[in-house]
Amino acid sequence: MRKWGIVISVFYAVIVGFLLVPAFFLIAGGFTDPIWKIFATGLISVLQEWLGWILIAAVLSGQALLLFLSVDTTQKKLKPRTHIAISVVVSSMLFGLLTLAVIFCIGFAAHGDNFGGGFLDTPAKFLAVWVILWLIWGVAFFLYFRNVTEVTSRAISWLLKGSVLELLIAVPCHVWVRRRDECCAPFFTSFGIVTGIAVMLLCFGPSVLFLFKRRLDSYSAHKSA
Predict the structure, then answer these.
(1) HSE-CB of 68 using CA atoms within 13 angstroms
(2) Terminal Cα distance for the chain, rounded
(3) Using an 8 Å Cβ cutoff, are 98 and 199 in contact?
(4) Per-residue pLDDT of the chain (225 residues; tens, 9 = 90+)
(5) Quick check: 170 and 102 in contact, CB under 8 A?
(6) Whole-angstrom Cα distance, residue 66 to residue 119?
(7) Would you say 205 and 12 are in contact if contact means Cβ atoms under 8 Å apart?
(8) Entry pTM
């Protein structure tokens, strides 16, 4: 089971690094170069920015933690509070990112390139807003998960629903700003689309292995009985 977790994590890292990150520039539009050149240029551009590394590391570490947290049976030997803390930190981090993407999409769809100048002019302010949303969701998830037994499966379910809702907002907003032929707005709405897809794909790995593990546990219990 753990080996399959490693395989899924590596596969997800390849998708994020070599597909979703370059696709961000392709979705944003405004390029006349061939697709392969847009992908290569986009990947190099993101990897040259420290903020890009932080965002990539956030989704990759979140996927790995939720995956191994849900399939590792040794977690049963630990105190439940540790299990809850990790799930709350990861899920609130990703929900904060989804919320920030929704704010971008709605704001740029409503106000165009004039939106976000106050907290988007530097990467540090971007991170500050993300951390604030992270803390807000962290408190909300802690209050919700503290009386829940299957914390990881609930967190994955919430993330999947949140990513779908975020995409339902991001895609129409992106179409709207593209029709207005604006400069910066399509980049931020495409960020919303890529973020929603990344979190959605993130949920499938832990969900599949969690269901597979549950089926194996039921077989073991049946044989014992």
Answers:
(1) 12
(2) 24
(3) yes
(4) 567 678 788 888 888 888 888 888 888 776 666 777 777 777 777 778 888 889 889 999 988 888 777 654 444 444 444 568 888 999 999 999 999 999 999 999 998 888 876 666 688 888 999 999 999 999 999 998 887 777 878 888 899 899 999 999 999 999 998 888 777 788 889 999 999 999 988 888 765 555 555 555 565 555 565
(5) yes
(6) 30
(7) yes
(8) 0.81
Radius of gyration of the chain (CA): 19
3-state secondary structure the chain: CHHHHHHHHHHHHHHHHHHHHHHHHHHHCCCCCCHHHHHHHHHHHHHCCHHHHHHHHHHHHHHHHHHHHHHCHHHHHCCHHHHHHHHHHHHHHHHHHHHHHHHHHHHHHHHHHHCCHHHHCCHHHHHHHHHHHHHHHHHHHHHHHCCCCCHHHHHHHHHHHHHHHHHHHHHHHHHHHHHCCCCCHHHHHHHHHHHHHHHHHHHHHHHHHHHHHHHHHHHHHHHHC
Q: Any residues with CB less than 8 A from the CB of 182 and at least 6 apart, and which?
A: 108, 112, 113
Model pLDDT, residue 76: 47
Residues 199, 59 contacting (CB under 8 angstroms):
yes
